[in-house]
Amino acid sequence: MPEDCIFCQIIAGDAKGYIVDEDEYTMTFMDAFPVVPGHTLIVTKNHYDNILDADAEAIAAVGRRSTSIAKAIKSALQPEGLGVFQLNGAAAGQTVFHYHMHLIPRNDGEQLEIHSRIPGAPEDLAAMAARIKEAIEP
Ligand code: 5GP
Ligand code: ZN
Question: Is the CB of 51 under 6 A from ligand 1?
Fold first, then answer.
């Protein structure tokens, strides 16, 4: 695990993450700089820089988990739509080089954005993580 990878640190419990869900291959937590409330990331537990070096099974595991997380976001937050984004390489806009998928609640009239520089308030991130976690169907 690269020591300077913030997602590896969250997975290892060495950095604070507002965790929504965890299974054998994936971890889901709140984006610390949400573009809208409920901006969620699903990451592989193993470190891969991006889709080009990732194991196909790990990517499949993120995809499988995304259906449950998407439904939980819909159920908890009732957005009109849900953006699913996955960026590979700096030229594509990737900023954290550990494979992950964004799930971003969307509503009519909002500007289409993937990144924000404004950190979420810890209490808001914690509350959002709890709401989405609670809405995951077993
Ligand atoms: P990318 O641009 O690589 O697709 O997305 C990386 C995401 O990670 C960005 O949306 C950014 O806000 C988020 N991020 C950056 N640093 C942290 C952090 O320390 N914790 C969490 N939970 N998210 C982070
Ligand atoms: Zn990593």
Answer: no
Q: Residues near 114 by Cβ (< 8 Å), separated by ≥ 6?
A: 35, 83, 85, 87, 93, 102, 104
Q: How confident is the model at residue 138 (pLDDT cuts 50, 70, 90)?
A: confident
Task: Give the tens place of pLDDT for each residue, 79-110.
Answer: 999 999 999 999 999 999 999 999 999 999 99
State the DSSP H helix or E strand holding residue 84, giving kind and residue range, or none if neither: strand 81-85
**pLDDT for the residue 107:** 96
How remote is the CA of residue 109 from the centroid of ligand 1, in Å? 24
Tokens of 83: 């953006």
The model carries a pTM of: 0.97
6 lines ligand 1 (CB under 6 A): yes
Q: Where is 30: in which H helix or E strand?
A: strand 26-30
